[in-house]
């Protein structure tokens, strides 16, 4: 490294790890936490409860699965459409669970709402996993037909086809992620509802066995029905290791540790990939498993601590293995489409690893640089504060938070008049006038974190620009934990 590059890297490191400007400390993280959880009520499918707070929504999808003699009512629409995709929904569930496991003690009055959001997902996943032996229902609705319409979920009249993976047409990726979701959730409910927790864990074990025994990618089994929407680009090995890791966390059954020890090298344990998302679970698994080494000295898990350190070093400018990209305004940048999903998931891992390190007196060595838990917290705070408004545009990318936030959200229910304001049906093609309208969305999808700005911090508040203006459950779920941390931790 030449001297100019070295000093530039040091400056970048200083900017990213230095204390926040005074203005950023005024963020009401507790309010942001409340809103981030409320968002999930805007994504609910099924019969809404009396406790529903996002009151512009109504009941929808009340016959889902009925033509196939299965009850698939409930769950979440993944983003701005009316499809229930199993892989991102399961990942959302796992991340909501992990947020509560690590940071639920800091949620205070929002813990009950967070558990309610989680249970809305797990109730659905339980039905999808137990309706038929050796079968997992993984999707409701035909996505290409759904995407040809712009209509409220309360009005949808597109086909509600049901898709499943079986022993003959396997889906180890979606099944193992579902197992991870149920296992993680069983930890959340272990004390407050032990019977429900036991049911979750038992089902998780069965679904994991199904995923492991009948190996194959659901993208191959279901082809165009899940691709290009949520193809399993990373394959299914990462989900198998992830699922086994969560089952071990939940059950402490040594057979799962034996599985991890015996199969880790073939399931991606030795591969470094620095993108954590609904598709790729490798780095998340390493952070999770590193806890066992840091807390209990489990020797077989030392490898995961080493790879977790590699991941952390890749994020910090000035280290010998720095490779991340940041916008001029300081936002982690991965992809042009829905970039904030990677920001929220990375931020969650930064804080979770910081918690593991701090609890055990650990740190990260990146060559000659020593990175502490405090450094990771500072870097995570930069990302959270950017999302909430400390950015060049001075815009909050969480809808309904702050004085300035996007008004033209790519979301059918939010952009169309509610069923309460406009009781008459709005047909498939009639809804497009609202998609193309320049008017703000009539219904505020409070708490939704959108796709976010581009690599130069530019953001177009345009409903047609779904890459930047569409929300998703898997963007919000990893954000819940960091907001709980900053709302409950004196800085």
From TrEMBL:
Q: Does the keyword Amino-acid biosynthesis apply?
A: no
Q: Which UniProt keywords apply?
A: Carbohydrate metabolism, Cellulose degradation, Glycosidase, Hydrolase, Polysaccharide degradation, Signal
Q: Which GO terms describe its biological process?
A: cellulose catabolic process
Pfam hit, one:
Glyco_hydro_9
How far does the signal peptide extend, from start to end residue? Answer: 1-24
Write the Enzyme Commission number(s) for this entry: 3.2.1.4
Q: What is catalyzed by this enzyme?
A: Endohydrolysis of (1->4)-beta-D-glucosidic linkages in cellulose, lichenin and cereal beta-D-glucans
- Active site: residue positions: 410, 461, 470
Q: Where is the Glycoside hydrolase family domain?
A: 29-482
Q: Which family does it belong to?
A: Belongs to the glycosyl hydrolase 9 (cellulase E) family.
Q: Which PANTHER family match?
A: ENDO-1,4-BETA-GLUCANASE (PTHR22298)
What is this protein's record name?
Endoglucanase
Q: What is the species of this protein?
A: Canna indica
């Amino acid at each position: 490294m030449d001297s100019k590059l070295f000093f530039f890297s040091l400056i970048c490191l200083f900017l990213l790890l230095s204390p926040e400007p005074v203005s950023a400390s005024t963020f009401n993280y507790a309010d942001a936490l409340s809103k981030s959880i409320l968002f999930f009520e805007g994504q609910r499918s099924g019969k809404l409860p009396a406790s529903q707070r996002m009151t512009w929504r109504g009941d929808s999808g009340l016959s889902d699965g009925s033509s196939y003699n299965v009850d698939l009512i409930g769950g979440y629409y993944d983003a701005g459409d009316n499809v229930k995709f199993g892989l991102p929904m399961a990942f959302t569930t796992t991340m909501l669970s992990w947020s509560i496991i690590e940071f639920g003690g800091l949620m205070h009055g929002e813990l009950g709402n967070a558990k309610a959001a989680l249970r809305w997902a797990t109730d659905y996943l339980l039905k999808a996993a137990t309706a038929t032996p050796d079968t997992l229902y993984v999707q409701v609705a035909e996505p290409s037909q759904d995407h040809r319409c712009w209509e409220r979920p309360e009005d949808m009249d597109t086909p509600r086809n049901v898709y499943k993976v079986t022993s003959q047409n396997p889906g180890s990726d979606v099944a193992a992620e579902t197992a991870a979701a149920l296992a993680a959730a069983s930890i959340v409910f272990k004390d407050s509802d032990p019977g429900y927790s036991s049911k979750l864990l038992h089902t998780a074990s069965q679904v994991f066995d199904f995923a492991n025994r009948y190996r194959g990618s659901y993208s191959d089994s279901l082809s165009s029905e899940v691709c290009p929407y949520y193809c399993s680009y990373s394959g299914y090995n990462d989900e198998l290791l992830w699922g086994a890791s969560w089952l071990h966390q939940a059950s402490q059954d040594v057979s799962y540790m034996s599985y991890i020890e015996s199969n880790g090298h073939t399931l991606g344990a030795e591969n470094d990939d620095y993108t954590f998302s609904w598709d790729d679970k490798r780095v998340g698994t390493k952070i999770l498993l590193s806890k066992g080494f840091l807390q209990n000295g489990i020797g077989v898990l030392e490898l995961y601590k080493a790879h977790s350190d590699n991941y952390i070093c890749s994020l910090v400018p000035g280290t010998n293995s720095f490779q991340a990209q940041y916008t001029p305004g300081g936002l982690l940048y991965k992809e042009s489409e829905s970039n904030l999903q990677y920001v929220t998931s990375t931020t969650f891992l930064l804080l979770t690893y910081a918690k593991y390190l701090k609890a055990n007196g650990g740190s990260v060595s990146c060559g000659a640089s020593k990175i502490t838990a405090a450094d990771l917290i500072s870097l995570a705070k930069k990302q959270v504060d950017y999302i909430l408004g400390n950015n060049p545009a001075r815009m909050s990318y969480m809808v309904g938070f702050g004085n300035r936030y996007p008004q033209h959200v790519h979301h059918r229910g939010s952009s169309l008049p509610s069923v309460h304001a406009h009781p008459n049906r709005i047909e498939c093609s009639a809804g497009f006038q609202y998609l193309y309208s320049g008017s703000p969305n009539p219904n505020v999808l409070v708490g939704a974190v959108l796709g976010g700005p581009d690599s130069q911090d530019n953001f177009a508040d345009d409903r047609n620009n779904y890459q930047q203006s569409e929300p998703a459950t898997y963007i919000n779920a990893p954000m819940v934990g960091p907001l709980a941390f900053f709302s409950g931790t004196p800085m």
